[in-house]
Design a protein that fits this description.
By secondary structure, the protein is of the alpha/beta class. It has helices spanning about 10-20, 30-45, 55-60, 60-70, 90-110, 130-135, 190-195, 200-210, 240-255, 255-270, 275-285; strands at about 1-10, 50-55, 75, 115, 140, 160-165, 170-175, 180, 185-190, 215-220, 270-275. The strands form three sheets. Strands 1, 2, 3, 10 and 11 form a five-stranded parallel beta sheet that branches. α5 packs parallel to α6 (about 130-135). Bound molecules: zinc ion (ZN).
Length: about 290
C-alpha cells in the first residue's frame, strides 16, 4: 500500500502573529529553512510528497516553490493568507484560492490541481467551497475530516477517496483526512498535532490499521520540526487574551523535538507518494468508493 504524504506550507510566526496578536506581515525566512530541512529528509529516503502552499509563501519566497517542484514533488494550494473558509464568502474564497493557484502555477510552471483548506475548514456549512474549487479547475480537495470534531469535521462523510457530484453539475474528488476508530469514536491520528503529541507508535499503528482498507493520508507542517522558538510578545494584549495566546503557543511548541525522529521512522517503515499519485492509484485499482 502506498500512502500519501502531505505538507501544509505555512509560516508559524506570521500565522500566529496575524491570528492571535493582530499583527500582519509577510512570512518569515523560517518557513524556507524548515521546508528545506524536510526536503532533505524526503530526498534522503527517495520520497515524493504533496506540498499545499500558501499563496503568500509563494509570493514572498518563489525560489522555494521552484525548489519543491524541481525535486519532483507535487504542488497544491493551501489558501492565500491562511483564512479559514468559514471566515470567507464564496467571492472572497474564489479570490484567495484562485490567486494562490495562478501564482504557484506561474512560479513553478506546472498545473496545480489539489487543494487543502486552512484548518480543514470545509464542512457541511462551507460545502459551497467545493463548487468554487471545481470551477477554478481543481480536480481534488483534501480538506474534510470525516469526524465530529470540536474545531473541524464533517460527520458521516465517507472515509475513502471518492468523487463528489456537486449541485452545479461539476464533480471533484475528495481525499478525506485519515481517522481511526478508538474507544468507539473516529479520531484523527495521522499527522499534525496528533503526530506531535502522541508517541510515535500510535501513528505507525494507525497507518497499519488503515492500510487494510485504504491508503493513509499523513499531513504535517514544516514548522513542526522548528525548535527553539521563544515566548511571544503579548504586551499589547489584555491579561486574559495573553493567557490564551501563551496556552496555544505552549501547545504548539510541545513535543516539536520529537517530530523529526517520528517522521524518519515513518519514511523508513512505509511507502509514501504525492496525494495526486495516490488518488490515481486508487482510481486505477478500483479501491475505495470512487
Ligand atoms: Zn494550515
Amino acid at each position: 500500500m502506498i500512502h500519501a504524504l502531505t505538507i501544509d506550507v505555512e509560516d508559524y510566526h506570521n500565522v500566529i502573529a496575524r491570528d492571535w496578536l493582530g499583527r500582519d506581515g509577510p512570512p518569515t525566512e523560517a518557513v524556507v529553512l524548515n521546508t528545506q530541512r524536510l526536503l532533505r529528509h524526503l530526498d534522503a529516503s527517495n520520497t515524493k510528497a504533496t506540498f499545499f502552499v500558501l499563496g503568500e509563501v509563494a509570493e514572498t519566497f518563489p525560489e522555494l516553490i521552484r525548489e519543491i517542484a524541481g525535486l519532483g514533488h507535487e504542488l497544491g494550494v493551501h489558501g492565500y493568507c491562511h483564512r479559514q473558509v468559514f471566515k470567507l464568502t464564496p467571492e472572497t474564497f474564489r479570490c484567495e484560492v484562485g490567486d494562490a493557484k495562478s501564482r504557484i502555477e506561474d512560479i513553478a510552471q506546472v498545473e496545480v490541481v489539489g487543494h487543502r483548506a486552512p484548518a480543514f475548514s470545509i464542512n457541511p456549512d462551507t460545502q459551497w467551497a467545493l463548487e468554487v474549487l471545481a470551477e477554478l479547475g481543481f480536480r481534488y480537495d483534501s480538506s474534510i475530516f470525516p469526524i465530529s470534531g470540536r474545531r473541524y469535521g464533517w460527520p458521516g462523510s465517507p472515509q475513502d477517496i471518492h468523487e463528489m457530484t456537486l449541485p452545479g453539475g461539476r464533480s471533484i474528488i475528495e481525499a478525506p483526512l485519515t481517522t481511526v476508530p478508538i474507544l468507539g469514536h473516529r479520531l484523527p491520528a495521522c499527522g499534525g498535532g496528533y503526530l506531535r503529541h502522541f508517541p510515535g507508535w500510535v501513528t505507525r499503528w494507525a497507518i497499519r490499521h488503515v492500510q487494510r482498507r485504504r491508503p493513509a493520508i499523513v499531513y504535517m507542517h514544516p514548522y513542526e520540526i522548528e525548535v527553539g522558538c521563544g515566548p511571544l510578545d503579548t504586551s499589547a494584549l489584555s491579561p486574559e487574551q495573553a493567557r490564551r495566546v501563551h496556552r496555544f503557543h505552549g501547545l504548539q511548541l510541545r513535543n516539536r523535538h520529537t517530530v523529526e525522529r517520528k517522521l524518519l521512522r515513518l519514511l523508513g517503515g512505509f511507502e509514501f507518494a504525492p496525494l495526486g499519485r495516490v488518488i490515481a492509484l486508487t482510481r486505477e485499482g478500483g479501491r475505495g468508493n470512487v
